[in-house]
Design goal:
The chain has helices at residues 10-19, 27-46, 52-55, 71-85, 151-154, 223-234, 251-261, 280-293, 324-334; strands at 91-94, 101-102, 113-121, 132-140, 161-169, 173-179, 182-189, 194-199, 210-212, 244-245, 264-267, 297-299, 319-322. By secondary structure, the protein is of the alpha+beta class. Bound molecules: 2,5-anhydro-1,6-di-O-phosphono-D-mannitol and magnesium ion.
């Protein structure tokens, strides 16, 4: 029997990367592998989501005698548990939790990284079998190694991220992560439970033809955003249009598609919610980092998402992200 060894696994890839940097400690690679492990566990439950009525509702006891948890609570527990018991993370902050969690055991306080995540994004799509995702962000702590992490380790601007990524639980499950050296995409091979490098060095196309926005809010957007949406619709064939509108309502899937195919995703502020809906630390910063490494752009309509100085863990921000040409067209309308 011949074995296909052309495909690299996540473990192999991260170890090989490490060999290029003899002084690297391997802590970040290990943290990424821990995230891969938590994601595999979540993936198993995501695939069973439709069975919840058979297996039991949130709070009830299932046939195995375990308490059934809501999927977003379950995902949060998996990521938090895996990172707490791993050796490469000093603390976490999660969209699901009010405050950050410092890991104060002897091993964790010696770790140099903290991780922030939205464990299950697009939760309104869970019950209807539409793709959902996990988004994560990794920072180097600013407090001394050996001490328990503090809020300032988490409240850093996005430009200080050392890595960021997401998992999309879609028609296949993918883990995409970025470091300053590039964006790598791995697809889960469910038959062996391994992440296989399927999309090496992802680059976001410079231009695209897809725009993603919640049209229902159109009349609550400012004039500049409305003008850009109209421009997307009014382009004729000679200038590459009209653009196609695609909006899943799961940011991970929407931005993933645009990252691969080229496009723009927008969650602008509205008259009633000027800061929009999306969270800076858990959703916007990680994607802004990924798109920047892949050659695209992300702004809040005025400045780069990555340059926003955060004041609160759960802070929200308007978000515009995508292919450079489309982002430049948008900026002209917003000016
Ligand atoms: P969630 O964190 O509660 O799941 O909400 C975030 C999601 C994003 O994935 C998506 O882009 C957005 O909410 C969709 O919101 P809307 O339904 O208002 O368009
Ligand atoms: Mg979310």
């Amino acid at each position: 029997m011949s074995i296909n060894r052309k495909v690299q696994t996540l473990d192999e890839f991260t170890i090989q990367q490490l060999r290029n940097f003899p002084h690297a400690t391997g802590e970040l690679s290990n943290l990424l592998r821990n995230i891969g492990l938590a994601a595999k566990r979540v993936n198993v439950e995501v695939n069973k989501a439709g069975l919840v009525d058979i297996l039991g509702d949130h709070g009830t006891i299932n046939v195995q005698g375990e308490e059934v948890k809501k999927l977003d609570v379950y995902a949060n527990d998996q990521f938090t548990g895996v990172l707490r018991h791993g050796i490469s993370c000093a603390g976490i902050a999660s969209e699901e939790l009010d405050d950050f969690v410092a890991f104060d055991d002897e091993i964790s306080v010696k770790s140099k990284y903290v991780c922030l995540y939205d464990p299950l994004d697009g939760s309104s799509n869970i019950d209807v079998n539409v793709s959902i995702g996990t988004i994560f962000s990794v920072y180097k702590r600013v407090t001394p190694i050996g001490t328990v992490v503090k809020k300032e380790d988490f409240l850093q601007p996005g430009n200080k991220q050392v890595a960021a990524g997401y998992i999309v639980y879609g028609s296949s499950t993918m883990l995409v992560y970025a470091t300053r050296r590039g964006v790598q995409g791995f697809t889960l091979d469910p038959s062996i439970g391994e992440w296989a490098l399927s999309h090496p060095n992802i680059q976001c196309p410079v231009s695209g033809k897809i725009y993603s926005v919640n049209h229902g809010n159109y009349f609550k957007y400012n004039k500049g955003v409305q003008q850009y949406i109209t421009a997307c619709q009014q382009k004729d064939k000679s200038n590459g249009g009209p653009y196609t509108q695609r909006y899943i309502g799961s940011m991970v899937s929407d931005v993933h598609r645009n990252l691969i195919k080229g496009g723009i995703f927008m969650y602008p502020g509205t008259t009633d919610k000027p800061e929009g809906k999306l969270r800076l630390m858990y959703e916007c910063n990680p994607f802004a980092f990924i798109i920047a490494v892949a050659g695209g752009k992300a702004t809040n309509g005025e400045i780069r998402i990555l340059d926003i100085d955060p004041t609160k863990l759960h802070q929200r921000t308007p978000m515009f992200i995508g292919s450079t040409d489309m982002m430049d067209e948008l900026a002209a309308c917003l000016a």
